[in-house]
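Q: Could you fold this chain for me?
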Amino acid sequence: MELFGRSPTHPTTGLEWLVLAGLLGVIVLSVLRAADLPAALLTSGAALAAYIFDRSFAIPFAVAVAGLAAFVFRKRTVHREPEQRALREGTVFVAIVALYALGSQVVHESWEIAQQNSIAIIDFEQTLRIGHELALQRWLLDHDRYLPLIDTAYSWLFLPFVGGTLAWLYLTQDRLYRQYRTALAISALLAVIVVALHPVAPPRSTSGSGLIGTHALVGGSDGMIGPFDAVPSLHVGWAALSGMALYFGVRSRLRWVWLIAPPVAMLFMAMATGEHYLVDCVVGLVIALIPFLTIQWVDRRLGGPYYFSLSLLSPRTIGRAL
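A: Sure. Below is the predicted structure, expressed as structure tokens.
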């Protein structure tokens, strides 16, 4: 069985088993103090599943940090019907991942078409004079001491940031969590549709772009970017979405840092490493942020969360919206 092209794995050394057990223990204990037992089982189970398929401690570590932060900064948050809530969210999570993986498998792309679409983006950016990817990569190559850091951050901070945000919001703010989770699901579905209808090869594999894949220079992984799915850039879109959700969900004078720093940093890394064009990043921002902001508007207008149920289509609900 494979998920996103990756087969299940497990710790192979005593140290790896110890680290994994320690992280899961921190998650369970911190979430028990911050919320409840069903939440502890769900978050630890999700962290374990992430390790099995991601082959990294990054996501379990992010979930552990989120659990500790929830306990330290918010103390204990009581949720209604915690068992049903955990079961619902676990089911939704599995369904989203399964549908995304299935959609990615059934999509059949053409390498020639993906190359043509990639070249069309180059021409479009040159016409508008917004193609700065080559200049960014030249700067990075001139300062190659930063290459390992940039490549590692691009590959390994993306999903942990999303996973940590999910865990934090799940433990502390149910309404904002559901808005965020639903926006993630919608943007993932839109991404599959876009790739199916308009496959685009990444700059690093497009002749004429002048860009290379910097991950190959340091022997790193280029993450989840396939040969046809440069558009949209979910790295940038989900970084911006996660930052915006944390901006709304964190009580701090410095919360604006979450709103600005993650998308700006990911935008630079996506283009400088040769993984995405600027257009890819803009499309990623649109399909991630528009659903989130729309859901928030619906929530405020209708007193939601109607987006999770069919009550959004009831005549009374529609009448109140109009």
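A (continued): Residues 1-89 form one domain.
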